[in-house]
Amino acid sequence: QFSGGMRQRVMIAMALINDPEVLIADEPTTALDVTTQAQILNLMNKLQEEHNTATILITHDLGVVAEVAHDVVVMYGGKVVEQAAVDDLFERPQHPYAWGLLGSLPRIDEVSDRLTQIAGQPPSLLSPPPGCAFNPRCPHVFDRCLSDVPELRPVPGAEHHLHRCHLDDAQREALWRANPVSRSMEAA
Asked: Would the pTM of this model clear 0.70, i.e. be above it?
């Protein structure tokens, strides 16, 4: 008989009752209206400060990520494909999957009939593709992607920003600059 927001508040209370050092919240705002979502996020932030608790937020909602996260880990096929401070991820993403995620966001400053989508289907975790897990869906795939799993490595000049992609630094930079999402983010 509780509303979605009430159920979320009860779950947060249950999670915090033993005063944990780390709170893992998996999609805590799914299916909530925008007002209730903001209230839940504010409550989680307030409780995090009061209880000095670290929070790991698992979500597909990049709006929530942009609003509440300090650091972001983007995962695909069970592997980290990018790790960065939230501002770095939104301003200078390095992995084609992150480019696709950002391209799928609606933009208030653009009129569009359709959102951009990432082609293909997510991989089976029981039978992942060889090489880079994103290779069946990546528009920039080349031979090495089909056989070798890329290492998680730092972005030049930003050692805390990591990515897992075989494209060399110059290729990634040029592809991102040519991406319509990049141009719309620069204009915003």
From this structure: yes
Average the pLDDT over 166-188 and give the result. 82
> How far apart, in Å, do the first and last CA atoms of the chain sit?
43
For 73-102, what is the mean pLDDT? 95
Q: For the chain, give the secondary structure using H, E and C.
A: CCCHHHHHHHHHHHHHCCCCCEEEEECCCCCCCHHHHHHHHHHHHHHHHHHCCEEEEECCCHHHHHHHCCEEEEEECCEEEEEEEHHHHHHCCCCHHHHHHHHCCCCCCCCCCCCCCCCCCCCCCCCCCCCCCCCCCCCCCCHHHHHCCCCCEEECCEEEEEECCCCCHHHHHHHHHHCHHHHHHHHC
Looking at residue 16, its pLDDT comes to 78
Q: Are 28 and 42 spatial neighbours (Cβ–Cβ below 8 Å)?
A: no
